[in-house]
Amino acid sequence: MTHDRRSLRLGTRASELATSQSGWVADQLRALGHEVELVLVSTEGDRSSAPLTQIGGTGVFVSALREALQEGRIDLAVHSLKDLPVGEEAGLVVAAIPEREDPRDIVISRDRLRLADLPEGAVIGTGSPRRAVQLEAAAPHTTVVGLRGNVGRRIGKVTDGSLDAIVLAAAGLRRLGRIAEASEVLEPAVMLPAPGQGALAVECRTDDRETTRLLMQLDHAPTREAVTAERALLGALEAGCSAPIGALATRHGDALVLDAVIGTSEGLLRHTLRGTTPVDLGHEMAHHFLTHLAPQDRPSLLKTPTAQHPGA
Ligand SMILES: NCc1[nH]cc(CCC(=O)O)c1CC(=O)O
């Protein structure tokens, strides 16, 4: 056990969602007896309002925090796991994946209408190709348009009447204390979440053994197992940031069950697999998709140097 009381510098983006996540991790560490100081780090994703698919995917939220870690300006960083590119980052380790929040997506709509009750031609905003393709299948009578910005701004588009509905992660809304504004929870049968949705990743320098050891106390094994399977699928597909892929792993007794969906030019391809080893399960799912995808759908999955991240 650590006996000295270091003050840990926790790097966070300034957004309300980021500070709520970072604040939660800071509280967990304080409960273990450590001093924690929040250090604000600004990222390209926060400064620009261009579509994420144009500025390099959700990884833009991550790179500035990683730089601050590598330069020793902070000791740990908290990321939304779904925004973290698949693959190892030199010199850094995800020392903790705490227990996952609700992984599902929710709808916020005018008059609290459910998706099925929205009128013909209703306009739903989302910047996520994954949400768009699943909405097309679940609510074919609606129209999906692009949308970005922080959670508050997105909700404002419904409140001010410029959109009929939006889709958001339940986890983010809960962390902001605004879950009561949801008009419908989308079950995984209707809308599979992004790989890793609802989970946090707490990262530190590999050579900082003390911080690594102390962060490991926040790790939640069942969450790590599930998100490992989901992200192995993404990694094996070398999914580009515009790849519309949803995945959710859940444990059923001895078996880990992976549900996944991919949007193709002919509609959704959805599959369920059971296994025991998370990485193998993700890879098997990738193999299934690759053997069932039409040739014209495969190029959209190819990784590009700047865009190797899942969309929201
Ligand atoms: N892409 C943005 C993003 N990244 C993480 C969350 C919150 C949910 C989570 O922690 O997985 C959100 C907002 C959203 O998708 O509604």
Automatic annotation (TrEMBL):
<comment type="function">
    <text>Tetrapolymerization of the monopyrrole PBG into the hydroxymethylbilane pre-uroporphyrinogen in several discrete steps.</text>
</comment>
<feature type="domain" description="Porphobilinogen deaminase N-terminal">
    <location>
        <begin position="8"/>
        <end position="212"/>
    </location>
</feature>
<keyword id="KW-0808">Transferase</keyword>
<dbReference type="GO" id="GO:0006782">
    <property type="term" value="P:protoporphyrinogen IX biosynthetic process"/>
</dbReference>
<dbReference type="GO" id="GO:0005737">
    <property type="term" value="C:cytoplasm"/>
</dbReference>
<dbReference type="GO" id="GO:0004418">
    <property type="term" value="F:hydroxymethylbilane synthase activity"/>
</dbReference>
<feature type="modified residue" description="S-(dipyrrolylmethanemethyl)cysteine">
    <location>
        <position position="241"/>
    </location>
</feature>
<keyword id="KW-0627">Porphyrin biosynthesis</keyword>
<dbReference type="Pfam" id="PF01379">
    <property type="entry name" value="Porphobil_deam"/>
</dbReference>
<dbReference type="InterPro" id="IPR022419">
    <property type="entry name" value="Porphobilin_deaminase_cofac_BS"/>
</dbReference>
<comment type="similarity">
    <text>Belongs to the HMBS family.</text>
</comment>
<protein>
    <recommendedName>
        <fullName>Porphobilinogen deaminase</fullName>
        <ecNumber>2.5.1.61</ecNumber>
    </recommendedName>
</protein>
<dbReference type="InterPro" id="IPR022418">
    <property type="entry name" value="Porphobilinogen_deaminase_C"/>
</dbReference>
<dbReference type="InterPro" id="IPR022417">
    <property type="entry name" value="Porphobilin_deaminase_N"/>
</dbReference>
<comment type="subunit">
    <text>Monomer.</text>
</comment>
<feature type="domain" description="Porphobilinogen deaminase C-terminal">
    <location>
        <begin position="226"/>
        <end position="290"/>
    </location>
</feature>
<dbReference type="InterPro" id="IPR000860">
    <property type="entry name" value="HemC"/>
</dbReference>
<dbReference type="InterPro" id="IPR036803">
    <property type="entry name" value="Porphobilinogen_deaminase_C_sf"/>
</dbReference>
<dbReference type="Pfam" id="PF03900">
    <property type="entry name" value="Porphobil_deamC"/>
</dbReference>
